[in-house]
Specification:
five-stranded parallel β-sheet; globular
Length: 154
C-alpha cells in the first residue's frame, strides 16, 4: 500500500490510470480515511472494456470507492504545452493528457496528489510537472528526460 504522511492536513488524491483500474486498485486498497479520495477520468473509465474488469469498476463506482472527474480544459492545454517542450506529445494519448491534467488541477487546488501509472511517458511528464507518481507493475522511470527529434538528413 502507498504510504502517506499521516500528519498532513491536505486532502490526499490518488489518481488512477487505466492500468491501476485494470489491477482493481480501487477495490483492493483498504477503505480510505475521510481525507483520501481515489479519482480517475471518464476517458480512463471508457478504456476498461472487458466484462470482468468493467464489472469490478462499476462496483467501485456504485459504492463510492472511486470518483470520476474530468480536468478543466485549461489544464489540458497546460499539459499539452509541457508535453511539447519535453518532446513526448506524440507518445501520449488523449486519455494520458487528461489524467495528467487532472493531477495538475488537483495539485493546484492544494491537494496532495499521487498518480498511479506504469506508463513511462506519463511518469516523465508528471516528473517534469513536479507531481508525485507510483508505478504498479514496472520499475518506473529513474530520471526525467527531454526527447529531441532526430534529423533524418544524416
Amino acid at each position: 500500500m502507498i504510504g502517506f504522511d499521516r500528519g498532513s492536513q491536505r486532502k490526499r488524491c490518488l489518481v488512477l490510470d487505466t492500468t491501476a483500474l485494470l489491477a482493481a486498485i480501487q477495490l483492493s486498497m483498504a477503505p480510505m480515511d475521510g481525507n483520501t479520495v481515489l479519482l480517475t477520468t471518464s476517458s480512463n473509465v471508457e478504456e476498461v472494456k472487458d466484462f470482468e474488469n468493467r464489472s469490478k469498476l462499476e462496483v467501485a463506482l456504485e459504492i463510492g470507492r472511486i470518483v470520476v472527474k474530468d480536468p478543466d480544459p485549461r489544464y489540458v492545454e497546460k499539459v499539452v504545452e509541457v508535453a511539447k517542450r519535453v518532446g513526448s506529445l506524440g507518445k501520449l494519448s488523449f486519455t494520458d493528457l487528461q489524467l495528467v491534467a487532472l493531477a495538475l488541477e488537483l495539485r493546484d487546488e492544494g491537494m496532495e496528489v499521487v498518480v498511479l501509472s506504469d506508463d513511462y511517458h506519463v511518469q516523465n511528464l508528471l516528473a517534469h510537472l513536479g507531481i508525485e507518481f507510483r508505478a504498479l507493475r514496472t520499475p518506473g522511470i529513474r530520471e526525467k528526460k527531454v526527447f529531441r527529434r532526430r534529423s533524418s538528413l544524416g
